[in-house]
Amino acid sequence: MNRTVENPDHIIRAEIVVGIPSFNEADAIGYVVAQADEGLTKYFNRKDSVIINVDNCSPDHTKDAFFRTKIKTPKLYVSTPKGMKGKGRNIKNLLEVGVELGARAIVMIDADLKSITPDWIQYFAEPIYMGYDYVIPLYVRHKYDGTITNNITYPLTRVLYGLRTRQPIAGDFSFSGRLARAFLTEKTWSENTFQFGIDIWMTTIAIARGFKVCQTFLGAPKSHRAKDPSGQLGPMFYQVVATLFGLAVDFEYLWKDTSDSMPTSIFGFGLGVKEDPPVVDVNEDNLLNSFIDSSRKYEFDWKKVIAEINLEDLLTLRDKCVDEINLPADLWARILFDYIVAYRDELIDREKLLLSLIPIYYIRTLSFINHTREMDTKSAEDFLDMECRMMEGEKYYLIAKWNQTPRKDGIPSIVQYLIK
C-alpha cells in the first residue's frame, strides 16, 4: 500500500508497537499519546518500543499535534496518500510497519479515547507475552452505547463461532506479530475491510483461523465520542455488517459445526469500577418513526428476504407506541439469519439489502431500551446475556435455511445432496 512515513527517531526495530489510527483527531490524540508513553515507560522500559500514528493525511493537522506531544518513547508517523481514507487502510499500514519492525506485540488504541490510562498498555501487552495472539478489551460501557455491538456483532459472533467476545468491534486491541503477519496474508480483505469493517474482520479472522484469543479487563469505563443510535449511521453500519455477513459465507464450514458458545480466557481482576460510564441519550421517537416510515419503503424487499411468519410478527410493531415495542431475541435472531442467507444469495442488491436492515435494527434497539430502562449497567448486561442465549437457541433455523435454500452459484446444498 502506498504510504508516507516520517521517522525522525530513525526507528529500525521495536519489540512493542503502540498504534493510534486517526482521521482529524488533532484535539484528542495528544492525550492518548501521553498515556501510552507513560504506560510503556512504567511497565516496559527495558523493551524497545515505538508509538505510531497511522493517519489518513488529516487536514486538521493531526500529525503536528502528534509530534508536538512531548514523550520519552520514539515516534513514527505513517499516512495514506492524500484523499485515501479508511480506518482499515490505517490498520493495514500499522500491520505492515509492525511486521517490518519485528514487533512481538502490537497495541492498537483509538485516538478519541478520554478514559485511557497507562495501565491499558500493560493489560493489552502482557497477554501477548503469555502466548495469546489477540486481546480484546473488557470495559464498562453505558447500556445504550455500542448498539451495533449489543444487537448484531456480539450476539452473531458468539452464535456463529462459539466464542464470547463482548467487544468484537471495540477499536482497541492488541495482537502478536505472528497474527499481524497472518492478517497481511489473508485473502478476505475487501473494500469494507479497508473501512469500518476492519475491527469485526480482525476479530473473526483471529477466531476462525484458530489463534489464541482472550479478553482483558481495562479497569475503567470506556469514554469516547458516543453516538445516539437513532442518528444517521452513515456507511459504518453497512461496512461492519457487510463484513460480518461476508465472513459468515466464507466460514460456512466452521460455524455449521459450532454449537454452544464458551467464554474466552480473561486477564485482570475486574474489581468493580465505581464510576459510571458516560450517559448516552437516545431519541426513542426517532427510532420508532424511522421504522414506521421505512417499513413502507422496504416492505416489498422485506417480503423477498424475511420468512413470512417472521415478517408478520415484525410488521405488527408498526401499530405500537414507543413503550410497547418488543422485538424478542428469538425473532430478531431469525430475521438476522434470513438476512445472512439473502446476503449470500444476493436476493436483492447487497447495499440495498443492508440498508433495509437498519430500520429493523432501530426497532430492536428500542425494544432493548424498553426492557432495560430501569436496570443498572450490570442488570442490563445480564439481560443481554440471556438474550444472546436465546439467539444461540435459534441457530438450527440458520442451518436449516442455509441448507434448504438453493445457492445462487448452483452448488447443491447438503440437504439436496442427501436427497439425491
So what's the overall shape? Answer: globular
**What fraction of the residues are assigned to beta strands by DSSP?**
5-15%
Helix/strand structural class? alpha/beta
Fold-level CATH name of the largest domain: Spore Coat Polysaccharide Biosynthesis Protein SpsA, Chain A
Number of strands: 11
What order do the helices and strands follow? EEHEHEHEHEHEEHHEHHEEHHHHHHH
Rounded Rg: 22 Å
Which structural traits does this protein have?
420 residues; Spore Coat Polysaccharide Biosynthesis Protein SpsA, Chain A; 2 domains
Written description of the protein model:
The chain has 420 residues and is α/β, with parallel strands linked by helices. It has two domains: 4-267, Spore Coat Polysaccharide Biosynthesis Protein SpsA, Chain A, CATH 3.90.550.10; 284-419, no CATH class. It contains 16 helices and eleven strands. It has helices at 29-43, 62-68, 87-100, 119-129, 147-161, 177-185, 198-208, 235-250, 252-255, 284-305, 308-315, 329-345, 350-372, 377-392, 395-404, 414-419, and strands at 4-6, 16-22, 49-55, 75-79, 105-108, 134-138, 163-164, 173-176, 213-217, 262-263, 265-267. Strands 1-4-3-2-5-8-6-9-11 form a nine-stranded mixed beta sheet, sandwiched between helices. Helix 2 (62-68) links the parallel strand 3 and strand 4 (75-79). It is globular, with a radius of gyration of 22 Å. Residues 413-420 have low confidence and may be disordered.
